[in-house]
Amino acid sequence: MRTGTIYKLLATGALISLLSMIIVVGLQIFTRFFMESSPHWTEEAARIFFIYSVAFGTAAGLRNGDFIKLNLIGKYLSPFAGRSLQLFTDIVIMAFSVILIISSISFVELGLDEQSPALEIPMGFIFFSIVIIGLAIFIFTLEALYNSLKGNNHRKS
Questions:
Q1: Taking the domains of the chain in order of start, what are their residue ranges?
Q2: Cα separation of 13 and 56, whole Å?
Q3: pLDDT tens, 91-109?
Q4: Across-strand partners of 122?
Q5: Burial of 70 by CB count in 10 Å (0-12 exposed, 13-18 middle, 19+ buried)?
Q6: Beta-carbon contacts of residue 67 (< 8 Å; ≥ 6 apart)
Q7: Closest alpha carbon to 77 in 67, 65, 89
Q8: Which residues pair with 115 in a beta bridge?
Q9: Distance between alpha carbon 131 and the CA centroid of its chain, in Å?
Q10: Which string of b and e fits 36-50 if b means at least 16 CB within 10 Å?
Q11: Phi-psi category of 17—alpha, beta or left, where left has phi over 0 and alpha has psi -120 to 50?
């Protein structure tokens, strides 16, 4: 699967999660004002949709280069040293993402035995958002590293 396809899936997931959260919060607001009581599950569902919109959005934002980047050090380095620093940074980020993925898989397994209070779904489903973030960080940093090594540095500054 190409990274462009993965990016589109993650961006679509972020959009669906955000729209779902808006719908659930809208339902909660409507029922609080116009009904005798609001559904007990709306707050928890909104929180889960928020968590997944952040997970998917973080992944998509990473590939776009939408995060803050400090160029202070690289500005004063030679082109070779700047490129070496970027390669080192990418390798460290990938190592961090592997640690995150391994740890989060254990966390998901722990959550499979727990149920969320209102929706009664396995907490492992909710914790899986961390796996998504770790995998996306790894994939898109690997893509950036590959492009840097090929000489196609298309990172946003």
A1: 3-150
A2: 6
A3: 999 999 999 999 999 999 9
A4: 115
A5: exposed
A6: 61
A7: 89
A8: 122
A9: 9
A10: eebeebbebbbebbb
A11: alpha
Radius of gyration for the alpha carbons in the chain, expressed in angstroms and rounded: 20
The rounded distance, in Å, linking the Cα atoms of 143 and 60 is: 13
Place of tokens 């993402």: 97
Distance between CA atoms of residues 77 and 82, nearest Å? 5
Residue 35 has which token pair? Answer: 């009904």
In 3-state terms, what secondary structure has residue 105?
A: helix
User: What is this structure's pTM?
Assistant: 0.85
Kindly state the average pLDDT of the residues 11-18.
96
pLDDT digits (tens, 9 = 90+) for 33-68: 999 888 999 999 999 999 999 999 987 888 887 776
